Amino acid sequence: MILNSKQHLFSPQGAEIVLGEIIEPEKLAIPITPSAASMFGPRSACLLSATGPLWVSDTGHHRLLGWRNLPTKDSQKADWVIGQPDFYHEGQNAKNTPDKATFSVPTGICACGAGLAVADAWNHRILIWHNLPEDSNVPADLVLGQANFHDNEPNRGGQLAAANTLNWPYGLFYHQEKLFVADTGNRRVLIWQQLPTENGQPADLVLGQPDMISRDENGGGFPTAASMRWCHDITFWGDDLVITDAGNHRVMIWEGMPTNNNTPCAVVLGQKSFDFTQMNQGVYFPNASSLNMPYGVGVIDNYLLVADTANSRLLGWIKPESILSLQGAMADVVAGQVDFQSKGENRNFGLPKRDSLNWCYGVKVCGNVAVIADSGNNRVLLWRLN
């Protein structure tokens, strides 16, 4: 069910295609074993063009799944796998040591120049392919956060962060030749002004911290327009930078591209002010302006879409003439729930439907298709937009 006060942004029929095994009542207690059609807690997905390919971070199985073309039927089998020897194995780093084509909790995934970038969260690194992989287990070309493809300690084993280290990076985005990484465990976002060319290359700018070595949540103090607690995903809404700060239950928006370290954002969604950080604004049930652990964010035309993860819903805001008017603004669209005041997984804690969500972690848009990582339902939805 979709409530939309402006127009039917999401198709009211729900997802056109559901990837992952379709859950049936008698299968609820059966463990999810890896296959070419199954997923376990996917955190992110990337549709590279209207016709494909599609890449999915199958996070719980520690692998990427790839479809050569846009899938056309439910539970369609993937064509490629990266991170495991075949479709039927799982385990962190394929139960071995890290390498150029292994993962430990892969999360964010995005197009990066002519290639692909993946946040390999628990290996504390970013893997980059210069060209889109078109086969299984194509090795990455570049690694960030580590000096080589075999190390995987947080912050390279140090107590402090640095411009060339990472700690649980969960999200990333490539925009105008700049690479943005949500270095979640260090409570910051790192920016490379150009696509890196060397392994372990240091970032140029940092948001969320006063310098490159600090890593305290909210900058070691109270929440502000510049601080972060659990940054997770990144996008651009026109010319404006958008970052989800799940730990502070808010979405941060900057006017334009920040050019200095620790630049404060202009407004936040989900909270009434910069220093207020309670889930659902301090009450049990949500409303049209509140958030509870928003992890994913995407853009379609003038709409900003937010995966309001712990409320198991998607919210959409229409961009006003000035983003300054968005402070604490009410959303224009909700999907996954019958209204703005509901929050249950799959609406009534039942079986998933084509238009229900369960801890949705990621949302990205390509053409008129929203690609939703519906993590709690172990599936990815391809939901047509009007």
From the structure above, extract its key features:
mainly beta; Neuraminidase; four-stranded antiparallel beta sheet; 1 helix; 25 strands; globular; disordered N terminus
Would you kindly provide a brief summary of this structure?
By secondary structure, this protein is an all-beta fold. 1% of the residues lie in helices and 33% in strands.
Structural account:
The chain is mostly beta strands. It has one domain (2-384): 6 Propeller (Neuraminidase). The chain contains one helix and 25 strands. It has one helix at residues 346-349, and strands at 2-4, 17-19, 44-47, 54-58, 63-67, 80-82, 106-112, 115-120, 125-129, 142-144, 169-175, 178-183, 188-192, 205-207, 231-237, 240-245, 250-253, 267-269, 294-300, 303-308, 313-318, 333-335, 360-366, 369-374, 379-384. It is globular.
CATH class category label: Mainly Beta
**Uncertain residue ranges:** 1-5
Total number of beta strands: 25
Mean pLDDT: 95
Any guess at the CATH architecture? 6 Propeller
Share of helix among residues? under 10%
Structural class by SSE content: mainly beta
Q: What is the total domain count?
A: 1
Query: How does the overall form come out from the CA principal axes?
Result: globular
